[in-house]
Amino acid sequence: MKENKKGYFLRTQCTIFQAEVYAICTCAKTLPMESEASIAICSDSQAALMALRCSKLTSSLVAETIKSTQRIVCVHQCTFTLDSRSF
């Protein structure tokens, strides 16, 4: 398995929630579009994962993340994991 490490600068006023959602969004945006790949995006952030599952969006970052993950779901098997439970 190829490991890819990158660093990103976030605003100093960025909340932990925003940083966690941003990390998921960035991961989804940078995934390869190879249909043979099986991809799991794992996070221990209950707040971020619940926001991605919520039907009422109050954050443009959450909306952007949902759009990015929907793009990869069309091509890959995408799994969001929280405490070893899959969503």
Strand content: 5-15%
Any idea what the shape is?
globular
Specify Rg, calculated over alpha carbons.
Answer: 13 Å
> Got a strand count?
3
Alpha-carbon distance between the termini? 23 Å
SS-derived structural category: alpha+beta
The main pleated sheet reads as: 3 strands, mixed
Low-confidence segments:
80-84
Number of domains: 1
Helix percentage: 40-55%
Spatial ordering of strands, largest sheet: 1-2-3
| Average of per-residue pLDDT values | 75
Order of helices and strands: HEHHEE
| Total DSSP helices | 3
Which keywords apply here?
three-stranded mixed beta sheet; alpha+beta; 87 residues
Can you tell me about this structure?
The protein has about 90 residues and is an alpha+beta fold. It has one domain. The protein has helices spanning about 15-30, 45-55, 60-75, and strands at about 40, 75-80, 85. A three-stranded mixed β-sheet has the order 1-2-3, with helices on one face. The longest helix has 15 residues, at about 15-30.
Topology:
Blueprint: H1 16-30, E1 38-42, H2 46-53, H3 60-73, E2 77-82, E3 85-86
Parallel strand pairs: 1-2
Antiparallel strand pairs: 2-3
Structure, briefly:
The protein has 87 residues and is α+β, with helices and mostly antiparallel strands.
